[in-house]
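Need a sequence for this fold. Nothing fancy.
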């Protein structure tokens, strides 16, 4: 049975493995015991922030997905917050089984409960499968995102 629950500190190695489990993450994420401390510190910072939550999807105890949900206060839209979804990953061997759809439905429900005016996310231009997935569940590519790398 698939469940979605708030991630615990002990989930960090599984989450990092999910983040590194694709062609972009493999070159971006750090692995090994020495790197774990960096990720644990990041988890602790997220865990202390009431506007941020990391979630994991589990199937019979196996971590099969993850995402981060952030509530962003703002003045636009009548001062209503928006929800930002980040770091969405599904275990490669489990893609196409409804895990991503369940995670996104969960995130949207939390955003509604929080009074958000919209849910937003960004996805890398090379992730064409992800683009099709997000469009299929109702997301619209309404803006052009821009980033400035600082590292």
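Here you go.
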């Amino acid at each position: 049975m698939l469940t979605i629950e708030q991630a615990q500190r002990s989930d960090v190695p599984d989450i990092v493995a999910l983040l590194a489990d694709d062609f972009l993450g493999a070159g971006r994420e750090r692995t090994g015991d020495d790197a774990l401390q960096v990720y644990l510190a990041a988890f602790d910072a997220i865990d202390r922030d009431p506007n941020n939550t990391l979630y994991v999807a589990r199937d019979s105890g196996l971590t099969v997905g993850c995402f981060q949900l952030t509530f962003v206060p703002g003045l636009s839209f009548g001062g209503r917050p928006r929800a930002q979804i980040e770091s969405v990953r599904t275990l490669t061997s489990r893609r196409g089984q409804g895990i991503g759809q369940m995670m996104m439905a969960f995130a949207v429900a939390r955003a509604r409960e929080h009074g958000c005016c919209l849910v937003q996310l960004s996805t890398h231009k090379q992730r064409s499968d992800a683009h099709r997935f997000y469009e299929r569940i109702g997301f619209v590519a309404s803006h052009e995102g821009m980033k400035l790398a600082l590292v």
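For context: DSSP finds six helices and five strands in the chain.
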